Amino acid sequence: xxxxxxxxxxxxxxxxxxxxxxxxxxxxxxxxxxxxxxxxxxxxxxxxxxxxxxxxxxxxxxxxxxxxxxxxxxxxxxxxxxxxxxxxxxxxxxxxxxxxxxxxxxxxxxxxxxxxxxxxxxxxxxxxxxxxxxxxxxxxxxxxxxxxxxxxxxxxxxxxxxxxxxxxxxxxxxxxxxxxxxxxxxxxxxxxxxxxxxxxxxxxxxxxxxxxxxxxxxxxxxxxxxxxxxxxxxxxxxxxxxxxxxxxxxxxxxxx
Length: 256
Known about the structure:
alpha/beta, 7-stranded mixed sheet, two-stranded antiparallel ribbon
């Protein structure tokens, strides 16, 4: 979804996603430090880079597989998110990935790279279409396709913009927590009124999820984990949000 939403610069994400991600950066642990190193990958035409600069951030780096910047920006590096990034170990304070991870063939490798380049305590902020929403689950039930990927992808013309790896919240949590991160914030860009049409599904979905998690956690002794995940996926933002936005921090000890 490409739109012109910030100073005429094309934005390839849903409405209010950039604003919400910026708020997380400003309200986070290092929010008052505008001199920290912030990497935006994939940076696209540079709308979020420009927003960062306009907000006072002075050390901003854009990374993308091709240079399609519509702004003047000296700190740009070409990089394939499925491969090693040309960024030094532990040199980044905050890494932002807006609607990028669903395009990757190797999301686990990308998160491992994010861990490598972030300093200890550094943050990653990810956004991705919220396929855990009731609206998306209903679309999947009826059509076999999730919201934001409503029809078959054109395999005759593979495109980096294709959503080849849609990821639910429980999968994103596993991806991050198994790679030495801990999530400290889960939110959404917005809850559109049409999303609440699916609200009658909330109670049966909760009961089915509670029963399944309870049965499986008894078998695997993972009740606390199941409770944490269930609380998030039945929050308002995940049930009805359009885009899932997560902030997580790199731990000192990955086993924590």
